[in-house]
Design a protein that fits this description.
It catalyses: 3',3'-c-di-GMP + H2O = 5'-phosphoguanylyl(3'->5')guanosine + H(+). Its EC number is 3.1.4.52. It is a multi-pass membrane protein. GO terms for molecular function: cyclic-guanylate-specific phosphodiesterase activity. This protein is α/β, with parallel strands linked by helices. It contains 11 helices and 10 strands. The protein has helices at about 5-25, 30-40, 80-85, 90-105, 130-140, 160-170, 190, 200-205, 215-225, 240-250, 265-270, and strands spanning about 45-50, 60-70, 70-75, 115-120, 145-150, 175-180, 195-200, 230-235, 255, 265. Strands 1, 2, 3, 4, 5, 6, 7, 8, 9 and 10 form a 10-stranded mixed β-sheet that branches. Helix 6 links the parallel strand 5 and strand 6. The radius of gyration is 23 Å and the shape is elongated. Bound molecules: ligand C2E and calcium ion (3 copies). One calcium ion binds near residues 179, 202 and 235.
């Protein structure tokens, strides 16, 4: 009398196990959505000018990822964690570099123009990075300096990737430490890597008008950068008072809504000086 019951239980168990296995080996729904959005070209570069404090001239641009879904344009805060989890961040970063390179290839960029991309430490080891930087130099000319802004999201040991880094440096690529002064940026990279630039985090720029401890850290970061002979970029500059303070402190490059917001690549090209 127990037998049909037993057979049924075993069947249910097997079916359940098969279902669980199948479910677990499927790509997650979010990964599918991201892969499809990538295939449709919905991840696009926005550019924000890097500005000379004295003259207001554009010295370069930071490339910032946007997800353009119909009329909606999403900033990375809304989706970058999902992209990272899906394992597509590397591929999307390469797409952004290629799209930016071809989008700027008709533009006349001033000599020494810095073009900065955000990468994680593990992406520095991506063997395709060298080729992308080489194509960028070929298409945009020797006058353009590719910059890789290192944002610390995971700890990654770059020991053993010295060859790749040397290759990048030989192409004229520069490294910047992003969000410097926050926990997102590792001081240890300063001694491990040949860094050219410190990007001072927005939270310290905010502190300028609030006379807080943050201002003490700001002054210390500026002094550190200057004593190491590094270039200093301040991000998140929103007011004239902040600009004045940073300029007087000798910060080399400013970035923020006070000057310009991140904009679609075509708008950036149209606003370049000398654009017909
Ligand atoms: P981040 O690298 O620190 O980039 C600067 C962020 O500050 C950008 O936010 C920019 O739009 C914003 N910003 C610039 N000026 C001002 C200002 O005056 N006021 C304020 N309130 N904000 C300002 P966004 O574009 O939302 O990007 C957020 C973060 O997402 C970036 O921070 C970066 O860590 C990450 N991210 C963006 N694009 C990429 C990418 O292509 N790859 C990777 N791995 N990360 C990216
Ligand atoms: Ca950045
Ligand atoms: Ca930053
Ligand atoms: Ca920041």
């Amino acid at each position: 009398a127990y037998e049909p019951m037993l057979v049924l239980l075993v069947l249910v168990g097997l079916f359940g196990a098969w279902g669980a296995y199948h479910w677990l080996s499927q790509p997650r729904a979010a990964d599918e959505v991201i892969a499809q959005a990538r295939a449709r070209g919905e991840f696009v570069p926005y550019l924000q000018p890097l500005v000379c404090p004295q003259s207001g001239r554009w010295l370069g641009a930071e490339v910032l990822m946007r997800w353009r879904d119909g009329d909606r344009v999403l900033a990375p805060g809304a989706f970058i964690a999902e992209v990272e989890q899906s394992g597509s961040l590397g591929a999307i970063t390469r797409d952004l570099m290629a799209a930016t390179t071809s989008g700027l290839s008709g533009a006349r960029l001033p000599a020494g123009f810095h073009l900065a991309f955000n990468v994680t430490a593990s992406q520095l080891a991506d063997p395709e990075l060298v080729g992308l930087c080489r194509v960028l130099r070929e298409k945009l000319g020797e006058a353009v300096v590719p910059v890789l802004e290192l944002t610390e999201r995971e700890t990654f040991d770059l020991a053993g990737h010295g060859g790749q880094l040397a290759e990048l440096f030989s192409l004229g690529v520069e490294l910047a430490l992003d969000d410097f002064g926050t926990g997102q940026s590792s001081l240890s990279y300063l001694s491990e890597l040949q860094v050219h630039t410190l990007k001072i985090d927005r939270s310290f720029v905010d502190a300028i008008e609030r006379d807080s401890l943050g201002k003490v850290v700001l002054d210390a970061v500026i002094a550190l950068g200057q004593s190491l002979g590094l270039k200093l970029v301040a991000e998140g500059v929103e007011t004239a008072a902040q600009r004045d303070y940073l300029q007087a402190a000798g910060v080399d490059v400013l970035q923020g809504y006070y000057f310009a917001r991140p904009m679609p690549l075509a708008d950036f090209v149209r606003q370049l000086p000398g654009h017909a």
